[in-house]
Amino acid sequence: MTMTFLFPLLAIVALVISSFSVPLVRRLALRLGLVDDPEAGTYKTHAQVTPYGGGISIVLGVLLPSVGALWWILEVRPYLLWEGDQFLSPWSQETLFPLAPLSPTILQLSQTVALLLAALAVFALGLADDWRRLSAGVRLAIQVGIAGVLAWSVPGFRPALTGFSGVDMTIAVIWLVSLTNAFNFLDNMNGLSAGVGAIAIAALASMALASAHLPGAVLGLLVVGGAGGFLLYNFPRASIFMGDAGGLFLGFSSGGLALLVCDRLGEVSWGDDVFVTVLPLLCLSVPIYDLISVVSLRLRRRLPPWHGDTNHISHRLVRQGLGRVDAVLVIFAGTAVTAAAGVVALIHPTWAPVSVSAVLIGMICVAAVDMRQISQDA
User: Fold this and answer.
1) What is the pTM of this model?
2) Which of these, 30, 163, 277, 374, has the minimum number of CB atoms within 10 Å of its CB?
3) Distances (CA, A) of 229 to 4, 181, 209, 218
4) Domain definitions of the chain by residue range
5) What's the pLDDT tens digit per position in 176-186?
6) Burial bucket for residue 330 (CB in 10 Å: 0-12, 13-18, 19+)
7) Alpha carbon distance, N-terminus to C-terminus of the chain
8) Is 47 within 8 Å of 73 (Cβ atoms)?
């Protein structure tokens, strides 16, 4: 089977698993009382009690095919970390299948497995928070711990930006924790966070594929399929929410995959151009902008960054006269444009400076108009 059919098939498999599991998870959540009560906060905008658990379905769509793929690899190469009588490091650059073209390396497989395990740990944190509310400090500390372990112990998640290992690791942790919470914050309207995540991660997966990081591409496509299966039940009407479990999982996965792709682009010939190396970050421009803008507004009003409110991009678009579905679709379109700009620039590297500059200028213009409107509303 050629990659032309294999990679779309992976996303379809994840979509089918995720979508078929949603009704079962929904019934279980209602039975266990794992629900989102609109009376739990003034920032809640839905009208009736809705079950959580969509994040479980997304993870099932990712995890089951991943376990199957790892089982197949071990069947084909049962002594994964052994070459004859020599033990190979998990970070070895040895290819998994020396006779196969475009074979991934042991390092690439280890990076992807490590990212999935870390994302699952963050998912467990979110599920615990959905079940029994955890304090913001506890959530942040655990997120920092998980991101720190990943950035410190696994090559590829600590970008060499300053030449100082501690500083670079701090930057990686801040990035991972920021994206983790950006997608959780973005989960404020039906389908919004999952849809933005699916679009952005699809672009990141295509970049991973173009730069020959096949395990990263596979993980990205599985996440896209898992999110797509959930969206069938969450947009435009929602019979289930993905909760913090789903938002944190999507955010951490996207942030980690972006770091992996940036690292991979730095290894190949594109790495000579810093603009090309940072193209994966364009895919995540929308959740980054929403996080920065909403946290800035909260700090300006002397509220803690984690204080829930209705000042996200989606809410501001609704106040401008758009319907809720229309607001979500506009944000989907914005995400698609920035993600496409990154992918096209990767295909045509000479366009990279233009793409990066255009997205930055666009974000500044949007911010200027946005802040002016916010000041008028105030």
Assistant:
1) 0.92
2) 163
3) 21, 22, 22, 17
4) 7-271
5) 999 999 999 99
6) middle
7) 58
8) no
